[in-house]
Amino acid sequence: MGLVRYRRVGESAAEWGWMEGDVLHEVEGDPLAGFETVSRARGDYTLLAPTLPTKIVAVGRNYAAHAQELGNPLPERPLLFLKPPSAVIADGEEIFFPPVGEEFHYEAELAVVIGRVASRVSEEEAAGHILGYTCANDLTIRDLQRDDGQWARAKGFDGSCPLGREISPELPGDARVRGYLNGELVQDGEVSDMVFGVERLVSYISQAITLLPGDVVLTGTPAGVGELRPGDEFRVEVTGVSELANPVAGRR
């Protein structure tokens, strides 16, 4: 169960809803501040990405095994980078690669969606600023990441942040992040194994960058990253959170 954004067929405006299984309910109120379900939605609709963030703040090397597989030391403090709003695509949308770079990699991740303005909050306060959780794929052009010396193109290209279809309000204590390439399990990590936990990340980011309602924090990827090719499908699972699956179309 969780919050979704959708668009009715034949209309241009996006609406908020509450998904229960495969049943979509209309809601009243501001989903980022408080709402209630009203009735089952009628008519055909298309599910959209569950949030339109002003920014995506992502964290690198937050699983020890992933840092090791890329030959990188563990950071002493969270290693941050940004993705722009144009990076977001929805569950089921095709992944297109830009006409630059050669090594296109998947990275399954837990995504945190902000619900209240977070500016200079403590770790103890951070949970009160979180709306919920969804799945993400931090797509990366690995050769550009190595060659550019910074990660703007490698991590921020158009469509580089697929997000799960809904925002789940709770995250189980035993949650795992799993990635499947064409049905084969290639990534599997416990959220509890993150170097820096969710509340630490939200607090740390907010000391310098104000997080606004709808913004997304990507929390890092477990070991097992690898290359995507046209015709592949990559699926992300986070325990207790909706799945995310995207086909790879190739270059555009």
TrEMBL record:
Matches recorded under SUPFAM superfamilies: FAH
Occurrences of domain Fumarylacetoacetase-like C-terminal (ranges): 55-248
Q: Which taxonomic lineage is given here? A: Bacteria, Bacillati, Actinomycetota, Rubrobacteria, Rubrobacterales
Example of a GO MF term: metal ion binding
* Gene3D superfamilies noted in UniProt: Fumarylacetoacetase-like, C-terminal domain
UniProt-listed GO biological process terms:
carboxylic acid metabolic process
Q: Which organism is it from?
A: Rubrobacter taiwanensis
Ordered alphabetically, the record's keywords are: Hydrolase, Metal-binding
Q: Which Pfam families match?
A: FAA_hydrolase, Rv2993c-like_N
Q: What is this protein called?
A: FAA hydrolase family protein
The Rv2993c-like N-terminal domain extends over 3-50
